[in-house]
Amino acid sequence: MTTTETPSAARTYLVSRGLALTGGSVAEAVLPLIVVVTLHGDTSAVGAVTATMLTVGLVTRIPLASWVDSRKRHITVQALAQILAAASACLIPLLWWSRTLTLPTLLASVVVVVSTKTLVASCGHSTLNSVVPPRRRTRAVGALNSMSSAADIVGSSAGPALTRLVPAPAILLVDAALNLLSAALLWPLRFVDAETTVAERVSEPVRIVPTTTLVLTVARRRDVWLLWLSGVVGSLLAPVTLVYLIRDLHVAPALVGVLLAFGAVGGIVGGLLAHRILRWLGMWPLIAASSGLSAVSTVCLLSAGQLHRLVYPLVILFEVLSASAGTLLVAAVFGTLQTATARPEISRVMSIASTGMEGLALAGIAAGVALSTAWSDHAVIVVTASCYVILALCAAAAYLTKGTGNPALVTHRRSHPKTPEPPPPPAPPPR
To answer: Which CATH number, 3.40.47.10, 3.40.50.720, 1.20.1250.20, 3.40.50.150, labels domain 1-204?
Structure first.
């Protein structure tokens, strides 16, 4: 594959993706408010919307990525997908305006919205490989993670704040507008698709690797497994953190959102530094450092229960360190996959890695709830810190073995057999 090394194209793509991420963050923050404020729903209704969003994303990601990998003009497809995402974002405001917005119609709209956003995300992996050269892809992935953290700050604060000016369903039009603007920025980059198509026509024909082969290849990578396990361990804290802050640390509920927002700052820092730390330390020391940093962050959360005068600084330190460590690990592993994978498989490889991480994270959330019910929130935090230490030791052991333990990613193969080697010349007759 030929990558167009145009810095302006790469910057345009990053800006475009940042706009789409901001719109998605606004929508994600506003959807629960629509359930509670507009539909007057209870906790079960909010849970139904959240579960629908997670389930649709997990179920559709790999099939949509397979379809994207079979396309040749990925940038054009992504621009059209973002126009489709903008149209889907208008569904809920239209239902509200026509007074037909109910919980079933909201759930049906959520299925459409999440499906289109998953399609946009799947196209993004191929687009990034088209506009960013291999040596800069880890840095680009880190920048995207930083943008995602910044978008979380904007969405979680601006989305609810806009409810004072306009009704909650109408706020989703912000998501539609940002997706249209993102598509408008992407549309001029179609020349990259044209150059790539010409390059593929003059190159050797390729055969697409089956998705099952890619699943097995990704699942055999030790760095991916450590990333997945780190996600499981981090998810143990998800159901207990809010309760622990309010009930055990006596943090005012009005300040909880402000304290949690510091995590996004840590995510920005981790994403921007990932490529430098990876180049300086290497993969296994980076994973060990990330796991150790996560263990230190959980110790800060535990210490906040004993040092009452330092509750707020320790909670802020917990949020910053945990988010920095998590984003650092995700950007390093995903950036490595993004760099090592060929164009015909990139969307599926990245979707497989994301699906595995999010699917196992759901298991971690369930385990956190079970541990909290059986013991206490304090015990869940102790278990989390211990597991992070174990992951750090596993990464250190992998580094000491002096081997990556990662199979090479399957790349596209020739669709025709190789030309056989010519036979050796006959030996001269004896005299």
So the answer is: 1.20.1250.20
